[in-house]
Amino acid sequence: MSLASCQEAWAKALSEGCFDGAESWIRSEGLPPHRRLWIYHNQLRIAWRDALEITYPAIVSLTGQRYFRRIARDYGRWHKALGGNLQDYGVCFPAYLAQRPEISLYPYLPDVARLEWARTESVAAAEEPGLSSQMLAGLDTAAWADLRLRLTASLRLVASAYPITRIWAAASGEGSHKDAARAALRQREAAAIIVYRQCRSVVMETATPPVWRWLLALQHGRRLPDAVALACEAATVLQIPFDLPDALAFAFERGLITAAV
Amino acid sequence: MGQNPPALAATPRAADLSIGIGLRQPHHDAWLALRPPVDFLEIHPENYKDTGSAQYADLETLRQDYAVSVHGVSLGLGNATLDAQPLLCLQELSRRLEPLFVSEHLCWTAYQGRHFHHLLPMPFTQETHDRFVAHIQQVQDTLRRPILIEPVAAYMRHREDDRDEVDLINGLVAATGCGILLDLTNLYVNACNHGEDAENFLTRIDADAVREIHLAGCRLNRFGDGHMWIDSHDTVVPDSVWSLYDLTRARMGPRATLLERDASLPALQELVEEIMPARDRMRAETAHVAC
After folding, report:
1. Which of B226, B247, B245, B103 has its CA nearest to residue B185?
2. ipTM associated with this complex
């Protein structure tokens, strides 16, 4: 009997709760083998569940802890964690939520989850000092055509058809989270959100859709003129103005721009 | 295999008299403000993989006042292969932090790329020995230093075992030149759960190779058909583990001693008070020897 067969049987027991193959590897003394496997299986479920509850507290509030734990259990079967860091365990949770049939009744939930994951990533991202807007004054006009602005590593951009920052705030406050979330939802406003870290705290702000589109293009490494063109497209469609000096001021004031290359 | 890393004996034995506490993220501000009177702190490398993060900046600040020990939980020395990325991360942290110790667990954590975030026990067999030797050497070659290996708390033993845990560990030390991180709570839990003799373990383990001791809390879980001690890290170190600590020092002298707490974290000051008896014991014994 090889280590590979042993670990294969254990992996099946841990991921699927199917103990038959693994029991034969375990000495029976005192507690029976299935009980010993159950301890590992249960500890793993608790560790995974706790990791999700720490990462997604607003979803816990919105769904209720009991139902959240049922989702967490199912996610444990569905999700194949590709890394050993438990902090990354919830990376696919928003996508998993979106594919659960009953969640279609609460279509904002996956977006709130994406917002919470963005907050988690923002907390862990590298510290980078923001540039001063003065650096632009020193640039040759000809250089603007090829200019790329690098954005801070903590910046995450989340868009939703629902007012998810309001829902998140309602779910994170005291009192009846579900009622507050319903009230927020009634406002029926889409959200273009920037999430970033400032003085060690995560900040969430709403941006205009064109500014949000401009930041997204910059984040993807587009040259400044290309990013402006995409922002202007969004502005035309939505009939909202986009003003580059205002957008640059918005980004510099928040320390979002860390390099110009 | 590559060239042998520097011998374990190159690590200063002055470290034997040090005490430490595991650094956990909720305690960062308290560590920075209080600067508790301990000698070293221990981190999980998985939590500091991004060396540009605010967490890592805190660690760099604390490193000016404390020695650092790097204690991995996810490398999976018993996995079929070692993932390249966490090993590179460990290499980078080791280069930057110049840690007092680098340690990992004698367990497996993943199968065919799927990670289980648990320290899963290995059978005590020749195949296990060979796999551990290959992977310990791979880590030591990468880091260019010896690592410490920690036997884990286990809630079962394998039918396939053809040796006991001490024989397996001593064999790994002899084959790789690595050291041992002896978690006395794991030892206690295993003794209780499997009817094993902790004193016999302490008598037979390669004492020179033991470079660090861990102390942690554990709990007794009762079921309808029996009970099991769980290595929970969520409560104070029980008296029975402190007794094993006394036995260990009597057998091998003082060793760097760390308090591990991962859940139900109290205020940092409470952890400082909890680990101080280790320092008191070491000081009393050192004074006794000096006289």
Report:
1. B245
2. 0.90
